[in-house]
Specification:
Blueprint (H helix, E strand, L loop, with lengths): L1 E6 L13 E9 L11 E9 L4 H11 L10 E4 L3 E6 L2 E6 L3 H13 L15 H13 L18 E6 L4 E8 L2 E9 L5 E11 L6 H12 L16 E4 L2 E10 L2 E10 L2 E12 L2
Antiparallel strand pairs: 1-3, 1-4, 2-3, 4-5, 5-6, 7-8, 8-9, 9-10, 10-14, 11-12, 12-13, 13-14
């Protein structure tokens, strides 16, 4: 399903709305920031368009946009993977993971006079770039075993931070034998764009946090070594000193769920669940 907003006043032919599902309507009073002084208000319709109908819908909308003020109007619709940006007589279908695709669209929009501050922007990552960054960030923080923590971001929290000078990774957790935490990656614009939540516990009271770290940290330091496992925890399987670490994960870096265990002599003595993905 694609979702987006159509400004009714941008349409020369409003009949195109009759075939669309409008889930919400809001009225905005026009200000100088809108840069449409011939109008008193914008009628903003939030619409939902099934994937099977999106190509036909955007074509109809492109043919219906007000051409008298062509330098002021566009509409756009997105799902998790694709972003349609629709101008009068021109349509861009953008892979949301590719920054350069947004650059081409924005260059065109500026050439016909649309205000830059009103244009859609690249909000995500190239997933290969994100994967490489996560691998390095995780190896340089908790998994390293000797990386210094940074100042607590919340009362009682333990925090790690890593940056490559462009993106920033921040890991915050609470507890030890039983713990909960969250990792966040900030993009080049310092906006939170990816995260992972996790909760884990040691099931054997005689197993200390230090003993668990003896197998857990080395396993986590192998992040990225299994090519078919997304780099959010460790490898699919790792064995050391009679301990067996295993990690199962479903999905991609965009949206995933994972389960991690450590076993000793066939008994599960530690478990963790995690989930996360892109933030919009």
């Amino acid at each position: 399903m694609y979702s987006g907003v159509i400004i009714e006043e941008s349409l020369a032919n409003k009949r195109v709305l009759e075939g669309l599902k409008i889930s919400k309507q809001e009225i905005e009073q026009v200000t100088e920031a809108h840069e449409t002084p011939w109008l008193e208000r914008w009628t903003c319709d939030t619409v939902e368009i099934p994937e099977s109908e999106i190509d036909e819908a955007v074509q109809s909308l492109s043919e219906s946009i007000d051409t008298e003020h062509i330098g002021n109007w566009y509409c756009d619709f997105r799902n998790n993977d694709w972003h349609y940006v629709v101008f009068s007589g021109k349509i861009f279908k953008i892979d949301r993971k590719k920054r350069e695709a947004y650059d081409e669209m924005r260059e065109y929009a500026l050439s016909i006079g649309l205000p830059e501050h009103q244009l859609p922007q690249f909000e995500g990552f190239d997933l290969q770039q994100l994967a490489k960054f996560l691998i390095e960030a995780k190896k340089q923080t908790y998994a390293s075993g000797d990386e210094a923590k940074v100042s607590s971001s919340r009362l009682g929290s333990n925090d790690y931070e890593y940056t490559d000078g462009i993106m920033v990774y921040h890991d915050t957790y609470f507890g030890g034998v039983k713990f909960i935490g969250e990792e966040v990656v900030y993009n080049a614009e310092k906006q939170p764009s990816w995260d992972m939540n996790y909760r884990g516990e040691t099931l054997r009271p005689d197993m200390s946090e230090a003993a668990m770290d003896a197998v857990l940290r080395p396993a986590l330091a192998m992040v990225g070594e299994d090519a078919d496992v997304i780099p959010v925890r460790g490898p699919r399987k790792f064995e050391r000193d009679g301990y067996v670490y295993e990690f199962e994960v479903e999905g991609t870096l965009e949206s995933f769920n994972g389960r991690e265990t450590v076993s000793k002599d066939g008994e599960v003595i530690y478990r963790l669940s995690c989930n996360g993905g892109m933030i919009e």
